[in-house]
Amino acid sequence: MTEPIFIDALGPNGPYRARNRLGVPDVAGNPLLELSLVPKVYVTRAMAALRKAGTMPQEERLAALRAAGELFATGVVDGMSAADYQYTVSRMSGTPLPIVQRAVRAIARSAAGSYDSAQKARPVGAVNDWRDPKAQEGTAVWIRRGDVFAVHAAGNHPGVHSLWLEAVALGFRVAVRPSRREPLTPYRLISALRASGFGDDQIVMLPTDYAAADEILRQADLSMVYGGQEVIDKYAADTTVLPNGPGRSKILVTADSDWRDHIDMIVDSISHEGGTACVNTTAVFVEGDPAPLAEAIAARLSAIPSLPPEDDKAVLTAYSMPAARKIESYLLAKSAGARAHLGGDGVVDELPDGSAVLRPAVHELDDPFAEQANVELAFPCVWVAPWTRDAGPAVFHDTLVLTAVTKDEKLLDTLLADPTIKNLYIGDHPTYWMTPGVPHDAYLGEFLMRTKAVIRD
Amino acid sequence: MSEHILDLPLDARPDPDEFVRAAMEWHFNPETGSAYWLNRAKTLDFDPREDVKGVEGLSLFPNIINELRDVCVEDLIPRGYGAKADVVGVYESGGTTGAPKRVIILRDWWQRIMAWMNAGMDEAGFPRDVNWLVIMPSGPHMAGKMSEQHAVDRGGIRFTVDMDPRWVKKLVAAGKAEEAEAYAEHLIEQARFVLSTQDVGVIITTPPLLERITRHDDLVDLINEKVKGIVWGGAHMDVDTRHLYRTEVFPGVKLRGTYGSTMILGGSRERLGLADEDACIFDPPAPWITFHVIDPDTGRPVDYGERGQVVMNHVTRNMLLPNNLERDLAIRVEPPAGQVGDSVANVSPVARFDDEAVIEGVY
C-alpha cells in the first residue's frame, strides 16, 4: 500500500479531516494511515451535540447494533473489505492475524448480544420500564446514570471495543477516543454503526492528542479509561470514571493437584492472544518447587515460531524494533535476581521486514512476594513463583483473573471473598476464558446504571 | 533634519545593520547607556560598539534574560533619557520558571509599538469606537496593559477582569486541577457579567479561555450577537481550532492573533491575506524586534518551512534584550520583502499523544 489511509474523526456532523494529522506506521515503520487529531474545541462541541441528541428507541437501536456487528465483521465499510481491514490491523498493531479474526467475530457477537448481556447486571428487584405491571405495587426501575458515555480506548487488542457496545445497547450516546496504536477498529466499528442506522450525533470517534483527551472525560457523564497503574491512581477518587488497569492475572496450583495435568491450560493462559491481553497470565504460583514447572513452561513456549503478524499461524505480537528493544531492556532490568528459564539473554527476534517479535520469557522467582510477579508485559512473559500456606492469599491481591487449581475449599472461600481478585476460575480453566453475560471486571452495567423506586396507580 | 534612525515609526524600513550599530552606540556609550549594560559590558569578551556591526552580530551577546530577575529596574533605564525618563510601567514575565523577569517600558517606545499594533487592527478591519472586554493577565503582566491601551487608543471603553496566571500555574504544578478549573470558571463568570449587561465590540483573551468560553452556549450566543472581533494572544492556537471558530463557532466574528512576549516589550502582527487553510504567520516589527528560528542543538537556522526554536531580539532606545532563546517552537517563514530576520508560523509547544515513558502493562 502506498497511499496512506485517512482515518477521519467521526463527529456529530459527519467525518472530519483535521489538518493536524498523526501518521500511524505499520510495525516495520512504513507509513500506513493518517489519523486526524481534533482540537479541544471540536471535542467540546461534539460532546455538547451528544448531550443534545435524543436516544434512539430500543428496538431500532438493537436492530442497528446487530446489523452493524455483521457489517463490521464481514462487509465493506468505508470502502474497505473485512479481509483488508484484518490485514491492516495486524500490520499496524502487530496483533497476529488469527487473533484479529477471533476478535472481529467476538465483536460481532457482542453487538448482537450486548443488550441481553447488559441485562445480566440488572438487580433482581428492578424492571426496565415504569409500564411494567410490577410498578403498580412498587418496584425498582433500572435507569441510566447519565446520557453520555466516553471511552479512552486501548490499542493492545481489537476486542476492547466489544465492551462499550453494552453502553450503546443501554441507550447511552458514546464518544470513543481511539488509541494511536490502532485506531482502525473503532473507526470501522463506528462507521458500521452509522451505516446501520445510528445518527452521527449518537456515537462519535474523537482522536485527540494528550492535551484534549481529558476534555472528553470532562464533558461525559460517565467514562471508561484503559491504562497502567498511573491511570488507575489518577481516577481512583472519581466515581464517574471506570478505569481498566493492569490485569496481573495469575494461576495457583496447590500441592493437592499436579501441575502436569494442567500444563496445556497454563501455557495457553500465558501465550493465548499473543500475551498482550490483561487476561494473560503474568505469574504462576505453585505449592512446592517451581523449577520443574518453569522448565516445562519454557520448553513448551520455546516451540512457538517467530512469524510476521499477518501470517495465518502467527502467535506472537510484533512490535517496531525500537518498541521491542524498549520492552526488552525493561524486562532485563526487572528480571535481575530471577532465574531465567527462557529469554534471559533477551527476547527480541527480528523479522524480515525489520520489525520484531518478543519471544517468550520464563523466569523463576524464589519468593512468593517478589515484586516481579506483578510485572505485566505485553508479550508471553511469565514469572513462576513458589507458593506457601504462610504467603496465603495476600500474593493474589489486585489480580484480574485468578485460576486456582486446588481442592482446598476453605482457600477458595477466601479467594472468592477477596474483592481485589476480580475473577476466580476454579480448576482447569485458562485465565483468558470469557463469555458474554459473565463479567470481565464486574458488569459494566453496575457502573452505567442505577435503580430508582417507582410506584404508580 | 531627518529623525534619528532609532526614533523612526515602526513601519519605516531603516537599514537594519545601521540601525543596530546606532543602538550599540546608544546602549554602550557611557553618556547614554543604562547602568546595567555599561556594567555588564565589562564582562563581555567583545566590544559591542566595535564588534556588533549589524543584526547578525546580536548573536555575540550571551542570553542575559535571567539577570532580569533581580536587577534593579532603575538600572535598566538608559542614561540618555536624562533624570526624568517617562516610565509607562514595569512589566514582568509570566513566572513559569521561578522568580519573574522584569522590564521597564518608556513612553517613546510604548507609543510607537501601540501605534503599529493599532494600524494592524485597522488593516485587519477591526472596528474603532467599540468597547473592549479584556480577559488577559492583569497586574504586572504587559498583555493586560497593552490590551487596555488598545481599547482606549481605538476609542472604546475597556472592561477588565482580574487574572493572575501564576496562581493557576501553581495550582496545576501542585496537581490541584480542580482548583485551577474553579479559578478559570471564576474568570468566565466575571466575563459573563460584562458580556451580558454591556456593549462589547471586541474581546481580547487567550486561546485556552476562548475554548472555555465555547463550553457555554449562552456565551457563544452573546458573542455572536454583540462582538465584532476577537483578538487572541498569550498562548497558541492551531489551524484546526481557528478554522472551527471561523466557520462554525463564531462565523461572523473577525479573529486575529498576536504573538508577543514581555521580553521583547511588544509583539508581532498576524499576516493578512492568507488562505483560511494556511497557518497563522506572525511578522515582527523588524529591526526593532527580530525573530530567528534555529535548531537548538546546533544554533544554526533551520530551513524555511522547518520547525525550530525561536530566538528573539529587542533593540530600541528603551531597552536592549538580544539573543533570547524562547521555549516556543515555530516554523521558519520568509519575512515580508525587505525585512530582516524571520517570520514565524504554527507556534506551538511540543505535542504529546500519550505518556510514552510508561511501558508496564498491556494498554
UniProtKB/TrEMBL annotation, chain A:
Residues 43-385 form the Aldehyde dehydrogenase domain. SUPFAM superfamilies: ALDH-like. Signal peptide: none annotated. Gene3D superfamilies: Aldehyde Dehydrogenase, Chain A, domain 1 (3.40.605.10), Aldehyde Dehydrogenase, Chain A, domain 2 (3.40.309.10). The keyword Oxidoreductase applies. Pfam families: Aldedh. Coiled coil: none annotated. Keywords: NAD, Oxidoreductase. The keyword DNA-binding does not apply. PANTHER family: 2-AMINOMUCONIC SEMIALDEHYDE DEHYDROGENASE. Belongs to the aldehyde dehydrogenase family. This is Aldehyde dehydrogenase family protein.
UniProtKB/TrEMBL annotation, chain B:
It comes from the Bacteria. InterPro entries: ANL_N_sf. This is AMP-binding protein. It comes from Actinoallomurus spadix.
